[in-house]
């Protein structure tokens, strides 16, 4: 018994459609074997596509995780290799969305093309298993892990290739990137608030990476003090007027008064008339050296010969503005006045000096010669606190390192580090008590 078999072909002779006794059969192309030359061609193309997909995924992770401002910091202050890498990457990362769309387009194209070539060399089940494994491991996990760790160097190496891809896909990627710019806004990099910068400084001090010098205590204090200065005002750093050493304008500069001035240990002395809240002038102690105590020169005449006035500032004056005022050299002391309900300057609250502002900046107390006799317990506690912060210094057994800032407010400060036994820690601090800080 015989049956008629009709065979019809498509215009390109593939695939063949076989009709046998009315039944339609589509002839399938058998997978290529390793003995076929085309097998290795398809396999090579597939491996290349996996590598391209992995490279695009890695570059997406590596380049897009690099912040523009961080790259600018590396370009200006990084190591020589980091400066070179950052200079190559910054022009690419500037257009954040264009880079994103370009890399995703190339990655999607490579991933979508993989099944076309894998189907030629394996059956569908094996193709699915191999494709999923290859894309997951070699196209996502490993490239992204490597590029997230070495993103700067890898991004700089492939920067020319990325430029070429941007050019080749520009017709598609540019409109999409502009659409993202309109919807999401352009990327301007990461900017830290002051509180975040202070936390960042703390992290750098506590968790410095290996082979890098951590920030020491003084650097942390000064940086944080500068960041906090914006929120501090004259009212928070002043010395109350009832604790300020002052002289009456009706008094005389006799021996007793000069002894009081010397014991106070200040370089400037406010002068009041009537009540202490009415400050009318300022005496520079260095100008008193030419006076004869026996003559008992009236303080009023001293002010008339060397007139100096104490500027007034409001209690809400920022310390940075006050520091700028002091830098002009007109005066290193100001009278701080209360702000009333109408917003006008009112009664005197106290005085503030350049030394007070600097102490707020460095967040440490500046001790001069006159302060040795002031408040023994406070000095001992301060010395112990500073000694505990000497992280980079080794102390001898049974001794405590003490750091102090010595020097007058007019002539700056000198940093000294001394090591004294426990039993002498407070012995050298005993003297006449003075309730006020130096100015």
TrEMBL record:
Domain CBS: 305-369
Sequence ranges assigned to domain CNNM transmembrane in this UniProt record: 35-214
Lipid bilayer topology: Multi-pass membrane protein
Region (Disordered): 387-439
Swiss-Prot/TrEMBL keywords: CBS domain, Membrane, Repeat, Transmembrane, Transmembrane helix
Pfam families, A to Z: CBS, CNNM
PROSITE patterns tied to this protein: CBS, CNNM
GO biological process: determination of adult lifespan; magnesium ion homeostasis; positive regulation of gonad development; positive regulation of multicellular organism growth; response to magnesium ion
One annotated Gene Ontology cellular component of this protein: membrane
Superkingdom in the source lineage: Eukaryota
Main location: membrane
Annotated transmembrane regions: 39-66, 124-143, 150-174
Protein name in UniProt: CNNM transmembrane domain-containing protein
The species this protein was found in: Branchiostoma floridae (Florida lancelet)
């Amino acid at each position: 018994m015989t049956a008629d078999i009709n065979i019809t072909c498509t215009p390109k002779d593939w695939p063949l459609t076989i009709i046998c006794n009315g039944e339609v059969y589509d002839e399938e192309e058998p997978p290529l074997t390793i003995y076929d030359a085309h097998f290795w061609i398809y396999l090579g193309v597939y491996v290349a596509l996996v590598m391209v997909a992995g490279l695009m995924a890695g570059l997406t992770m590596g380049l897009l995780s690099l912040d523009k401002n961080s790259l600018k910091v590396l370009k200006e202050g990084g190591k020589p290799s980091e400066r070179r890498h950052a200079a190559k990457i910054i022009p690419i990362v500037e257009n954040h969305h264009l880079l994103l769309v370009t890399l995703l387009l190339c990655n999607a194209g490579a991933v979508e093309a993989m099944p076309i070539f894998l189907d030629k060399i394996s059956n569908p089940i094996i193709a699915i298993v191999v494709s999923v494994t290859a894309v997951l491991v070699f196209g996502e996990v490993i490239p992204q892990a490597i590029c997230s760790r070495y993103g700067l160097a890898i991004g700089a190496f492939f920067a020319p290739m990325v430029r070429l891809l941007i050019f080749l896909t520009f017709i598609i990627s540019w409109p999409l990137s502009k659409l993202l710019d309109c919807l999401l806004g352009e990327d301007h990099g990461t900017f830290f608030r002051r509180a975040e910068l202070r936390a960042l400084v703390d992290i750098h001090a506590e968790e410095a990476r290996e082979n890098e010098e951590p920030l020491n205590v003084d650097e942390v204090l000064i940086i944080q003090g500068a960041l906090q200065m914006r929120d501090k005002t004259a009212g928070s750093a002043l010395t109350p007027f009832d604790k300020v050493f002052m002289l009456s304008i009706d008094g005389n500069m006799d021996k007793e008064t000069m002894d009081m001035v010397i014991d106070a240990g200040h370089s400037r002395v406010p002068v009041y008339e009537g009540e202490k809240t009415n400050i009318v002038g300022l005496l520079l102690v260095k100008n008193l050296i030419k006076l004869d105590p026996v003559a008992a020169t009236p303080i009023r005449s001293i002010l008339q010969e060397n007139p100096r006035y104490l500027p007034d500032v409001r209690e809400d004056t920022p310390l940075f503005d006050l520091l700028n005022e002091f830098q002009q050299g007109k005066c290193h002391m100001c009278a701080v006045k209360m702000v009333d309900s109408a917003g006008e300057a009112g009664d005197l609250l106290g005085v503030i000096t350049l030394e007070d502002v600097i102490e707020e900046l460095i967040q440490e107390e500046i001790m001069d010669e006159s302060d040795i006799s002031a408040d023994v317990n406070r000095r001992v506690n301060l010395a112990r606190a500073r000694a505990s912060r000497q992280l980079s210094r080794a102390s001898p057994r049974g001794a405590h390192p003490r750091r102090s800032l010595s020097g007058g407010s007019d002539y700056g400060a000198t940093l000294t580090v001394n090591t004294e036994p426990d039993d002498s820690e407070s012995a050298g601090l005993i003297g006449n008590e003075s309730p006020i800080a130096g100015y």
